[in-house]
Amino acid sequence: MSSAWTAKVRLSPTLRTTVMLWTVAAFASGLLAGVLWYESHGAWKRHLAGAFATGFRLFAALQDGQSSVDGITIKALGPADAAIADKGNFASVSGVPQPSLVTVVTIREPVPVDVSRRIISLAIISPEIRYPVADLEVRENLPPAEKLAVITKLLATYCSDSLVLAKNAQGNWFRLQGGAVWSCAAAPRDFRLVAAFIAVLSLAAILTSVADTSQKFRSFAEALRSRRRVGGPDSYVEHGPAELREIVSAVNSYMEKERAHLFKRAEVLSGVSHDLGAPATRLRLRAALIVDDELRRRLDADIDQMIGMIESVLAFTRSELSDEEPRRLSLTALIEALVADYQDLDRPVELETHQPEVIETAASVFMSSKGHRTLPDERRLLVIARPMSLQRAIVNLVENALKYGRRATVRLNATSAMATIEVEDEGGRICLGDIEKLVAPFQRGRNSVMTEGFGLGLTIASTIAEQHGGGLQFEQGDKGLRVKLTIQRG
Ligand SMILES: Nc1ncnc2c1ncn2[C@@H]1O[C@H](COP(=O)(O)OP(=O)(O)O)[C@@H](O)[C@H]1O
Ligand SMILES: [Mg+2]
Questions:
Q1: Going from the N-terminus, what domains does the chain have, and what CATH number goes with each?
Q2: Res 58: pLDDT
Q3: Residues in contact with 314: Cβ distance below 8 Å, sequence separation at least 6, in sequence order
Q4: Of 42, 176, 291, 300, which sits 20 to 30 A from 268 (CA to CA)?
């Protein structure tokens, strides 16, 4: 991945502007939604109240035989149609809408007076709907006029171009055309759904934008966090709000300086290791000219120690610089090869095959507690690591086990997140507090008097473990020291 910093001028609002814009937008859309809702609600209330009032007047008009009331025309049915209506065959009355869905309602006297006496029979004929009259909360003791008002309101609630046939107390049938009261054209436009939609939409947009912005910050932080362990690009793409761009740009320039710095150090290092060869050889040649055997032997030993020391310091610095690219590798394969190399040289190193790798699974519908299951063989112990460094760290531990504990037994363990390489020796009891102090550079223990070394082996192993997101731990094993090198797997 390379820098995506281009000459293109991109609009990159600051978080402050974005938040302000969103707040204004949220306020505006909330206001719009509120006004739409309030207006529609009011208009419908007025519409239904009008229909309710008209119902009262319609009642009077029907009893008196008037020809119209409040936009409802009332026409008597012809004798033929009246006969058909009396039989309840409303769909066949002339001029009814087709197809005809008929809702029949009867309005009777209130309970205490005469329950059986019908005052008005209604047949509401609509091409689309049957009215849910059964749901109407009409108490039995309501005056008949109010019952008709409730039904008229119901007609206005469900807009449909219905025709109403009505029979009054005298038994005369009328045709009621009430388009102005209950047709769809008379109903006010309802923007409540639109208002709800606007509110939900703007809320969703704001939440998405907030989540998106915070995700950009978090993913950048995550990229930086895992960088040391698994590596990363030379520079990061600058995107998101202006503040984040500034941070990314600062990190990019910091990384660039750091890279230049490291490059310089690496150059010096390789120069030193290269140039060291010549004076060392000269020293040895000159030492060979010394006649005194004892003196020559001592000088040789000093030269060896000096060169060894410089080389181990160089090795340590190199491990700290760690320019090696991390890659996916099988830890099992790496350790097997390493142990095999020692065995070829007849050194007492063995690999103890471990139990199958077990991972924890989350609780599921079928299992109330966390489950465990083993991974298939081919997936065993894959890690993302720097192979050369990791190998160097393990070799250091094995060398120590051989030097200070006679034998080395290597084991591998892993969870889904971490992998542990154990190196155990047979050097007997050892004080764990002491050995932890020996991790510091150039520190050697009392048991090292007879062995060669510069006190950097544990330092290097611990540095490399830390570079892999883990560390070094010491335990008392069965026959000697057990050193655990832990690394993060991915
Ligand atoms: N497996 C071990 N058993 C006992 N002592 C150990 C073991 N590994 C390391 N040590 C002690 O830790 C010291 C530091 O180890 P290290 O950093 O590898 O340096 P070096 O091996 O060059 O002395 C050693 O000198 C030794 O005293
Ligand atoms: Mg060592």
A1: 28-182 (no CATH), 255-323 (1.10.287), 326-360+372-488 (3.30.565.10)
A2: 93
A3: 269, 272, 273
A4: 300
Listed residue (225, 224, 223, 229) closest to 468, CA to CA: 229
pLDDT of residue 363: 58
Give the mean pLDDT of 232-252: 91
Ligand 1 atom index nearest CA of 453: 22
Per-residue pLDDT at 368 exceeds 90: no
pLDDT of res. 10: 54
CA dihedral for 51, 56, 57, 63, sign (positive or negative): positive
- Cβ of 448 closer than 6 Å to ligand 1, yes or no, is yes
Nearest in space to 391 (alpha carbons), one of 320, 313, 262, 485 = 485
* Count of residues making up the chain: 490
In the DSSP assignment, the letter for residue 167 is E
Among 327-336, 376-385, 464-473, name the one with the lowest average pLDDT: 376-385
Each residue of 389-411: pLDDT tens digit? 999 999 999 999 999 999 999 99
Q: Report the pLDDT value the prediction gives residue 1, as an integer from 0 to 100.
A: 38
φ/ψ of residue 18, rounded to 5 = -60, -45
pLDDT at 2: 38
Return all residues near 206 (Cβ < 8 A) that are at least 6 apart.
Answer: 22, 25, 26
Q: Is the pLDDT of residue 208 over 50?
A: yes
- Nearest-CA residue for ligand 1 atom 4 is 404
In our burial notation (b when 16+ CB lie closer than 10 A, e otherwise), range 159-174 reads: bbbbbbbbbbeeeebb
4 confidence band (pLDDT: 50, 70, 90):
very low
Burial of 96 (0-12, 13-18, 19+ CB in 10 A): buried
Bond prior to 99 in cis (omega within 30° of 0):
yes
> How far is residue 97's CA from residue 161's CA, in Å, rounded to a whole number?
9
Residue 445 Cβ inside 6 Å of ligand 1? The answer reads yes
For residue 430, what are its two tokens? 């050892």
Residue 430 near ligand 1, beta carbon < 6 Å: yes
Instruction: Tell the residue number behind the tokens 């059964």, with chain if given.
Output: 134
- Measured N-to-C along each axis, helices 242-288 and 192-230 cross at an angle, to the nearest 10 degrees, of 10
* Ligand 1 centroid, distance to 216 Cα (angstroms): 46
Ligand nearest to the CA of 444: 1
Partners of 327 in beta bridges = 385
Mean pLDDT in residue range 17-26: 92
> At how many degrees (to 10) do helices 242-288 and 293-321 cross?
170
What local confidence, expressed as pLDDT, does residue 199 receive?
A: 93
